[in-house]
Write a structure and sequence with these properties.
Helices cover about 70% and strands about 5% of the residues. It is mainly alpha-helical and about 230 residues long. The longest helix is centred in the last third of the chain and has 26 residues, at about 200-225.
């Protein structure tokens, strides 16, 4: 927890003069999505509030917002914890991803498209793989799909998918071999990018649909093995 709190202290400057529960929840959501708080982690009000320099009431409101997003869970007389997903949660996350991400690609207007963010995420994933940083590859993968969703130019869609991608990161935490999970998608992200660069959104949508179906199968297989029913 000490390492995570040090990171939160660095985020303190992001609050500036608008130290609201929404800004605090944005920071914590990002930290969860980036893997700083694994599933099952108890979040200490005193420690996190001290690291961010916010009041207990502000932090509790941020916790409430993230509980509503299904990222946290409050356990009576025990405190607030990062949620542990079920297999059904994972399946629902992928259903939502397929509905939204494929619709974004299908609904793209006339090319050329603004693909700098996608290209940067592909490069980041390749760099992390060379450095054998498979957690970093997973983060780059999520950034790729955020950038893909951002092509819709919709703040509502971006907001919806921020919490979905944060939940997805919770599922990744139970994977015992992150390289096996993430490595195949470095090339597949690049293929989707190349299809969009070639102005072929139909091919990009086809690649994305197969990608998401394969990813769901792989993640659920691992999740069933690691978490199991009733755990």
């Amino acid at each position: 927890m000490a390492e995570q709190l040090t990171g939160l202290a660095d985020d303190r400057a992001l609050l500036g003069r608008t130290s609201t529960a929404e800004r605090v929840s944005d920071i914590l959501r990002s930290r969860i999505a980036e893997g700083y708080f694994p599933p099952g982690t108890r979040l200490s009000e005193d420690s996190i509030g001290g690291a961010l320099g916010v009041s207990r009431n502000t932090l509790r409101e941020a916790f409430r917002l993230l509980t509503h997003e299904r990222l946290l869970v409050h356990e009576l007389n025990r405190g607030v914890f990062v949620r542990v997903l079920t297999v059904e949660d994972v399946e629902d996350i992928y259903r939502t991803r397929a509905l939204v991400e494929c619709a974004v690609v299908r609904g793209l207007g006339e090319p050329p498209y603004t693909l700098e963010g996608l290209a940067a995420a592909v490069t980041a994933g390749q760099t992390a793989a060379v450095e054998n940083d498979w957690k970093g590859v997973g983060t780059a993968n999520i950034h790729f799909h955020r950038e893909l969703v951002a092509l819709a130019g919709s703040e509502r869609t971006d907001e919806l998918m921020r919490s979905v991608f944060a939940e997805l990161r919770l599922a990744f935490h139970v994977v015992d071999d992150p390289r096996q999970l993430h490595e195949p998608y470095i090339a597949r992200n690049r293929q989707i990018l190349q299809a969009l660069q070639a102005r072929d959104k139909d091919e990009a949508e086809k690649l994305l649909g197969v990608y998401l179906a394969d990813s769901l199968e792989r993640v659920v297989e691992v999740y069933r093995r690691r978490v199991g029913e009733g755990e």
